[in-house]
Amino acid sequence: MNLRPLTKLDQSILGIVRSHVGVARAIKIREVMELLGMEDTPQTQRAIKMAVENLRRAGHYRVGTSRGTKNDAAKGLFWIVDANDFSASYDCYKKQAMTMIWLVSHAFKACFPELAHQQILNFDEDKSA
Fold it and tell me: Which residue of 9, 39, 55, 100 is surrounded by the most CB atoms within 10 Å?
């Protein structure tokens, strides 16, 4: 957990997100920038996303992010209040995480074919003994 103090941007975003309760009331990042008087640039969008990550690292796990769907207007940031909100926020990361695990596994096998069938790698084992 990141215990650093929240920046002014972190605190501002937290206040905005807390007023958007539930995934159905999600606020788009562009709208957050507009409320904060920030210019819509890729750098500003990254700053907002980093602030959200900082909030979660500081223990504000109820800051949700929804990528939405084609038939769903709920896309953006919101305050998680129930299990459905939690799923809307974190399920989108499950596929991304599984893709990364698959990629790392296949890259490892390609780079180290002699270890491809090894079940467990123990990097902590002292081999000098």
Answer: 55
CATH number where 64 lies: 1.10.10
* 32-65 tens-digit pLDDT: 999 999 999 999 999 999 999 999 989 998 999 9
The predicted pLDDT at position 103 comes to: 85
pTM: 0.71
For 85, the domain range is 8-91
CA distance 30 to 115: 47
In whole angstroms, what is the distance from residue 2 CA to residue 78 CA? 21
Task: Tell me the average pLDDT across 95-115.
Answer: 79
